[in-house]
Amino acid sequence: MVSTSTAENGVASPREKRAEYEFDLSGGRLCLDFVNTVSGRDTVPVEHLNTYADLVAWGLQTGDLSGAKAEALLREGRRSPKEAARILREVLRVREVLYRAFLAVAGGDEPRRADVDALNAALGRAMARARIEAEGAADACCGWCWDDDPYALDRPLWPVLRSAAELLTSDEASRVRVCDAETCQWLFIDTSRNRSRRWCDMKVCGNRAKAQRHYRKMKAGA
Prior knowledge:
With 222 residues, the chain is mostly helical. It has helices at residues 4-9, 14-20, 30-35, 52-62, 67-79, 81-106, 113-127, 158-168, 202-221, and strands at 38-39, 46-47, 130-134, 142-146, 176-178, 187-189.
């Protein structure tokens, strides 16, 4: 049953939203998993970030938001629904910038200057929220953390942008691939030794492609 606040503002609890959709995290990097929150881009696109609550559920499922932080963001989203809707539109705009940039990289090209500029602008806003925190660990004295601002509705996007910047400036950028399945087009990191991975998920797209090939062979034989 959908609560009144969910129906009016599109902002439910993380538990409610997770029951509706479990995000796929097979991209290999946080930024690619984020880009993959749309299915079937070249066929029949299916959007999985339809409300601000979906965005919070995304951060919760990836582990970048704690339960308490997610609940705080949802409360703020219910308090300021227009701002939450604006943030969601901005997040989706940035996601498409990332998609175009990584799609170019996967094809062996450079991202468009306009997309790089847009990414830099978003990255600057996100990294202004980054902090170094003492951890006292044996292998490192400090670690990264983010501002604990309960009113920062764009908080789920910050680690995505940092992940994107790290990937685009690393040697791993050459391993970004596009799923070979005709109805998928998700992005992923090819971690195979001979760089021959073709599908984002062998159990899903790989098996589906094999089944389609088998069907076509059987049909041709008949």
